[in-house]
Amino acid sequence: MPDLLELLRSIRGLICFCNTSRRPLKVHGGRHVSNIPQWPHPRKLPITPPSATKVDADIRFVKQQGWFFTEIPLEIRRRIYDFALGEEVILLSIPDQDLQVQRCLEPDRSMCLKELGEETTQKGEGSADSKLRISVALLCSCRQVYCEAIESLYASNTFLISDVDVLRFSIPKALLYLPNFVFPHRLRQIRSLCIHWCIYPAYKLGRNYLSMDHRRILQVSTTWKDCWKVLSYMEGLHELYISFACSEDEKVRWLAMEARLLDGVKEVTVKKSFVIVLPFEESNLGLDVGQSRCELRVPYGSSGFLSYQQAS
């Protein structure tokens, strides 16, 4: 009987080993050398709270282990998080299929784009390329710090989007696909967003907009609506700045479609400052913006986008 019990214990240990090991499966001559990789068991306390309503509750019930930093009042700790993780201009882009994040070294948004294009070509330790990286090591220190500080990453930075998908009629990729990379409650924590929306000429696309069939026009219109829908999800926005840039070759086409392209503005809610700079001086400043309280501006004079005219 003791030998039988030892055999059962050995079999049970082997089964437990097979269920927990994460080594890859290799097959040699029909024999399984190792087991199939297994996902880790769910955390008792997930690192990311599933909704914004549980964040404060999770922070309250995290045990204090005598760490000096945890003895500081939460309001002061959050100010420290804002200083460590925020007060930056962060450029979002999707050059391939992954979201890329870079820190702008210039407070001026217009200079930020020029600087990013020049400095990111430098490589090596201590170069500008390393300075452009976003440091989030503080968030990885422990779960309590993560729960308290993650909001500062979204709420205390200005996010800048300037990349456009030429093949999809100049749609900002980082804006359109942002919900694929960021949780909905994190999108609602973003407070400051700046978008440079460049409309590429039709001849660069190798096609004529006027010759598109009805189905293709509806597809373009739907994609534009999706972009405005993403902005409408960001209910925590305090500042939203959008500047459209368009070549003179597209002036007639833009002015004819201006009201339809900007119809989604009505669904966007911004608490403080909502500014849209239209591409041409002849643009209509009297467009219907609904209840969004959007302020429309147009460039004028030789200084271009450095000077603006708004509705009186």
Summarize the structure.
Residues 63-299 form the DUF7730 domain. This protein folds into 2 domains: 2-32, no CATH class; 52-310, no CATH class.
Report what the structure shows.
The protein is about 35% helix and about 15% strand. The protein is of the alpha/beta class. The N and C termini lie far apart (about 95 Å). Strand 9 (about 295-300) and strand 10 form a beta hairpin. The strands form two sheets. Strands 4-3-5-6-7-8-9-10 form an eight-stranded mixed β-sheet. Strands 1-2 form a two-stranded antiparallel ribbon. The chain has two domains: about 1-30, no CATH class; about 50-310, no CATH class.
Helix count equals 10
What is the strand arrangement across the widest sheet? 4-3-5-6-7-8-9-10
Mean pLDDT: 70
For the record, give the distance between the C-alpha atoms at the N and C termini, rounded to a whole number: 96 Å
What pattern of helices and strands is seen along the backbone?
HEEHHEEHHHEHHEHEHEEE
The tally of domains stands at 2
How can the largest sheet be summarized?
8 strands, mixed
Poorly predicted regions are 11-38, 114-130, 202-211, 302-309
